[in-house]
Amino acid sequence: MSIHEDFEKAKDVKEIFEVVKDSVRATLNESRAGIDLGLVDLGNSHNQLLSAYYPVGSNIIVLNKTPLKRVTETKPDLMKPYVFVVLLHEYIHSLGYLDEATVRKLTHRITKTIFNSSGKTAQGASGIITEMAEDMTKFFPFLLYPGGHPADDKMHLIELEEPDYIG
What we know:
The protein is α+β, with helices and mostly antiparallel strands. The protein has a domain at 3-31 and 67-149. The protein has 7 helices and 4 strands.
C-alpha cells in the first residue's frame, strides 16, 4: 500500500502521525522513535496562530486543539490535511532541523514528493496538503476564531504505539 493510500485511510491523529513518519522515512531516509503527541488548547490571537510546537531536546510534539475545534466547525474536510502538515513540520524539527525556513522548505518538498509523485497536479486532500505546506495563512479563515480564542493549559497525551524493531 502506498503512503498516499495510508493517508486516505487514516482515521485519527495517531494514524496520520504514522503516515507522517513514513513520509519522512521515504523522502529523507530519517526517523526518530519515542516521540509522543500532546494536545493543549493554546488558543489563538487575532490573525495569529501557533498550530503546534516541538520543545527542542524533548520527546513530545504539542498540537494546539483550538484550530482543530475551529476546523471541525468550519471546514471538516481540512482536518486531515491540516494535521498532516502540522505534524510533518514539527516532526522534522524533532529530527534536529531547527531553522524555520529550512523546515518549511522540507515540509513543502516532502508533501510535493509524496502527494504529487504521479506527475499530475494533486486533487482533493492531497492538493490541499501541498497548498497548506506552501502557505498556511490562506487557510486562516477556517483555522482561527475571529477576534481570538482563550487558551487552556491542560494537556492530553495521545497514546502511540511504537513498532517493535527487535526480533
